[in-house]
Amino acid sequence: MLDFITNAIIWVLALYGLIEIIKTIYYICTCTKIESDGIYFIIAVKNQEEKIEGFMRSILFRILYGKEECIKNVIITDLGSNDKTKDIAKKLEEDYNFISLMDWKSCKDLIDNIDKK
Fold first, then answer.
1. Which residues pair with 76 in a beta bridge?
2. pLDDT at 117 (0 to 100)
3. Are 102 and 95 in contact (CB under 8 A)?
4. Distance of alpha carbon 31 from alpha carbon 29, whole angstroms
5. Which of 16, 54, 100, 103 is the most buried (most CB within 10 A)?
6. 6-15: which pairs have CB atoms within 8 A and are 24 or more residues apart?
């Protein structure tokens, strides 16, 4: 009887792990591409090394744990910072797959080239 309970628990955990892997793969495939539809959150920054991380963490908290489920793309646009703003934004981009760091020209090109349906 103990073997049956142990095997049942192992199978339940294995199935749960498989479901989580499938969910993660689906999320990566559908949410990491910049698409022509959806809501983009574009943040333009310049020389804000003291404020950007706190601001972005508060925005990320609202997106991840709040009711802002429709925002899937956050673009941080650097306007030529002379301090560590760009480095902090790069770290946030590495930590969260829905954040993209761009310079102003790349962001403008992205906006100009979005397909209109």
1. 43, 101
2. 41
3. no
4. 6
5. 100
6. none
Q: Where are the domains of the chain?
A: 1-31, 34-117
Return per-residue pLDDT of the chain as tens, 117 residues.
Answer: 888 999 999 999 999 999 988 887 776 666 545 555 567 788 999 999 899 988 888 888 877 776 555 666 888 998 888 999 999 999 988 988 888 898 888 888 877 776 654
In order, the DSSP letters of the chain are -HHHHHHHHHHHHHHHHHHHHHHHHHHHHHHSS--SSSEEEEEEESS-TTTHHHHHHHHHHHHHHSS-TTEEEEEEEE---SSTHHHHHHHHHHH-TTEEEEEHHHHHHHHHTPPP-
CB 27: neighbour CB atoms within 10 A? 13
How far apart CA 50 and CA 83 sit, in angstroms, is 10
Structure tokens that stand for 36 in this block: 């022509």
Burial of 82 (0-12, 13-18, 19+ CB in 10 A): exposed
